[in-house]
């Protein structure tokens, strides 16, 4: 037994040495290595293929719309005039969500990472993470049936005192199913994304830098401004961009909450519609050119999301250089 | 400005764990005092109680008194933030703020307390502080470059400049040379000798030659074993600690028989 095994290790080890040498000069590799690199290559290529397939599908299906006679399309004035209110509505809802969720999300993350006592910080963190686990249809149902009726008095108040601003022009919707309500629901939905990412990054701020600031006589807030925010800047931006991606694409919650309609500059009246919600509402009954039109709308959303991601990467890479 | 420090019956805790027990010590103004002792003996912990940095860690607390010219740092109504502007600190590893330029680093602490410092005053202060830290000639042409771009020794001197810019009365140094090469160490040691003209300097060091070179008085700390509190064994003029210590443990330590 022992003799045979010794004999077999002899050539085995020689082979190992030769392969190691061969490896450095770039010839061949052991079978396991080859299989693994093959698997990872396939996985990598597959992702690109899927992405390309989606893009090709969107473009191919949408091409009918771009080629079609403007009068055949919804509204009868061509694709551009059909899509722009939807894009604007999508951007309005996402912007409201970001404006509300970013300060709250960063604040909660800071509370968990730097203010709350340890035994309190953890449960708060779990609750926030739990928010991310709630399905969007639940948020939608809650927003439509609970939140919307309750915000009506607030909208009336906004309309009364801030009605001179076009965005708060009255009379306010008496169902509360407006783009502002949709934005608030979206804000709650993206809050856990911002909070969870920011919290992780805030916690990674080097202790040595925090102590440097405290040692100079900084208060806790000054310490956070001097060390935590500069350190976390790129991370904050990417968390917000990730949240923006979610807000742009969110469908179900908006569909349930928003009583959609044509573009309306007032946020407290019904009206406006998002791209994703428009597709979801109309797709089941669509055929022919209408189907192509909705897919073209999907293509537009895809491009917007892609641009947001590219922009996020660009900003992050610019800010990253200054920070360790 | 320079102030004396008197420590009375100081116990330092991490939660329930007594880390340093019953310290009594008087530190003279315009002097350099070195803390030496084996790892884990509580010398750094004790140092951090002198500007209330110890309590930054969760569960950390202190009993007893630390008097700065007679005023108790742990008295009622004393703001730890204010304490730290009077008692500055230089850390084990150089830690300039990475997103700030050299100039901004020097002014970081000053800007906290005095937001409306004029441009010329700021320029004067930057030059004075960097000269005080023996760094001016090396960086005067690149004050707007990031502080993180300097060498380790230069970064540590930048941190010292940042500390003296706040005009503290006391400067605490927690193993300031442990991450530096010998030449940078020499530069910082020279600087410490100059700093004592103006400040009370307290330095923790693992390097006994360093303690012998820079300090007027030396305090030797020791622990009886793991889990036991650190204690001040002997506190005397540096010459005496190294040549003629009165405690056996001190002699064993400085002669290299343990630790």
TrEMBL record, chain B:
Gene3D superfamilies from the UniProt entry: P-loop containing nucleotide triphosphate hydrolases
Keywords: ATP-binding, Nucleotide-binding, Translocase, Transport
A Pfam short name: ABC_tran
Organism in which the protein naturally occurs: Rothia terrae
GO biological process, one term: phosphate ion transmembrane transport
Cellular component aspect of the GO annotation: membrane
Name under which the protein is recorded: Phosphate ABC transporter ATP-binding protein
PROSITE patterns linked to this entry: ABC_TRANSPORTER_1 (PS00211), ABC_TRANSPORTER_2 (PS50893)
Residues in ABC transporter domain copies: 5-248
Phylogenetic lineage: Bacteria, Bacillati, Actinomycetota, Actinomycetes, Micrococcales
GO MF annotation terms: ATP binding; ATP hydrolysis activity; phosphate transmembrane transporter activity
Entries under InterPro entries matching the protein: AAA+_ATPase (IPR003593), ABC_transporter-like_ATP-bd (IPR003439), ABC_transporter-like_CS (IPR017871), P-loop_NTPase (IPR027417), PstB-like (IPR005670)
């Amino acid at each position: 037994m022992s003799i045979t095994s010794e004999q077999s290790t002899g050539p085995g080890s020689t082979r190992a040495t030769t392969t190691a040498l061969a490896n450095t000069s770039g010839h061949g590799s052991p079978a396991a290595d080859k299989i693994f690199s093959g698997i990872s290559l396939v996985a990598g290529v597959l992702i690109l293929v899927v992405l390309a397939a989606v893009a090709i599908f969107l473009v191919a299906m949408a091409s009918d719309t771009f080629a079609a006679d403007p009068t055949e399309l919804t509204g009868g004035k061509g694709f551009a005039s059909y899509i722009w209110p939807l894009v604007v509505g999508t951007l309005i809802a996402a912007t409201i969500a970001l404006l509300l969720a970013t300060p709250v999300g960063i604040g909660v993350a800071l509370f968990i990472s730097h203010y709350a006592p340890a035994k309190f910080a953890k449960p708060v963190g779990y609750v926030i993470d739990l928010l991310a686990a709630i399905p969007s249809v639940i948020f939608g149902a809650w927003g439509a049936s609970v939140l919307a009726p309750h915000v009506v008095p607030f909208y009336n108040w906004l309309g009364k005192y801030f009605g001179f601003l076009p965005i708060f022009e009255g009379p306010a919707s008496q169902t509360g199913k407006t783009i502002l309500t949709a934005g608030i629901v979206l804000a709650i939905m993206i809050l856990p994304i911002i909070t969870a990412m920011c919290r992780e990054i805030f916690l990674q701020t080097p202790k040595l830098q925090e102590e440097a600031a405290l040692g100079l006589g900084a208060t806790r807030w000054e310490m956070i401004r001097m060390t935590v925010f500069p350190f976390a800047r790129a991370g904050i931006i990417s968390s917000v961009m990730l949240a923006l991606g979610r807000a742009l694409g969110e469908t179900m919650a908006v569909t349930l909450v928003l009583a959609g309609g044509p573009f309306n500059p007032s946020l407290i009246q019904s009206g406006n519609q998002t791209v994703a919600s428009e597709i979801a509402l109309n797709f089941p009954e669509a055929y022919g050119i209408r189907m192509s039109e909705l897919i073209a709308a999907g293509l537009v959303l895809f491009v917007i999301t892609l641009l947001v991601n590219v922009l996020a990467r660009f900003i992050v890479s610019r800010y990253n250089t200054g920070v360790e | 400005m320079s102030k004396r420090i008197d420590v009375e019956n100081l116990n330092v805790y991490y939660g329930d764990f007594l880390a340093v027990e019953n310290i009594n010590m008087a530190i003279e103004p315009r002097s350099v005092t070195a803390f030496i002792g084996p790892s884990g003996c509580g010398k750094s912990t004790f140092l951090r109680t002198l500007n209330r940095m110890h309590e930054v860690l969760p569960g950390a607390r202190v009993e007893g008194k630390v008097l700065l010219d007679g005023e108790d740092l742990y008295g009622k109504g004393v703001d730890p933030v204010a304490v730290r502007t009077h008692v500055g600190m230089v850390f084990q590893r150089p830690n300039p703020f990475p997103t700030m330029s050299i100039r901004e680093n020097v002014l970081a602490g000053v800007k906290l307390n005095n937001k409306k410092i004029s441009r010329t005053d700021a320029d004067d202060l930057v030059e004075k502080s960097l000269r005080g830290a023996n760094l001016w000639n090396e960086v005067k042409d690149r004050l707007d470059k990031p502080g993180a771009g300097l060498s380790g020794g230069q970064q540590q001197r930048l941190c010292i400049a940042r500390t003296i810019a706040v005009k503290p009365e006391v400067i605490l140094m927690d193993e300031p040379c442990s991450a530096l090469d010998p030449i940078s160490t020499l530069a910082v040691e020279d600087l410490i000798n100059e700093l004592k003209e103006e400040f009370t300097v307290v330095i923790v060091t693992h390097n006994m030659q360093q303690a012998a070179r820079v300090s007027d008085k030396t305090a030797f700390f020791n622990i009886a074993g793991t889990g036991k509190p650190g204690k001040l064994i002997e506190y005397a003029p540096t010459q005496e600690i190294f040549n003629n210590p009165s405690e056996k443990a001190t002699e064993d330590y400085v002669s290299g028989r343990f630790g």
